[in-house]
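## Example pair
The file below holds two records. Each record gives the amino-acid sequence first, followed by its structure token line.
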Amino acid sequence: LVVRLADGTEQEVAFERCLIGTGASPVIPPIAGIRDVPYWTSTDALETDSIPERLAVIGSSVVAVELAQAFARLGSRVT
């Protein structure tokens, strides 16, 4: 694998097995009315100091599943 570094140079990386986690940015889905109600992105959820009584998690990524599990274990009723 050849990786281009921030300074523009390239570095070759050799390995037997590889997992590439590129990361992502939160996106507000195009759901009618969503901007009219309070919501969190995954980033907001990690920065909160409150646990909601009920929480709906919309998403199919590992981050969505992890947040749903964490809030459920902290006492939220998660959908």
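Second record, same layout:
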Amino acid sequence: MRDVHPNVRVALDMSRELRHRIAAVRERVDEIVARRPSPSGLVIPEVDAFGRLTDLYLAPGTCARFDNRELAAEIIAAISESLQDARRQYEFAMNDVAGLPRPLAEMTREWQAKTDLDRPFPNFGKPEQ
């Protein structure tokens, strides 16, 4: 089996690290859910980080209590509040300095230090020139 160039090993490690970081960010975003009630408290929507309505709760008797326009206004008001809350949660999650990973430059220096530089670089079966 041929040896892999140390810089290629570092690049592979870096790509693996980036995949893990992207997955971690996706997990943080997927955890964001906002549920803010309407002004009357009878309508509670559930909105995700992308602003998609994922669920809608109407308290028993809500449809009988309001006419069509009032019910629509209650639902829209609750969804608007939930959207704003989801945006706030997203901004907080993405700008949280406590969750920042180590800088890639620092990790790259460590990976490069681990490579055995005393060995000759592989020439992949090509004769030396």
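Notes on the second record: Strands lie at 33-34, 43-48, 53-58. The helical segments are 6-30, 62-65, 68-94, 104-114.
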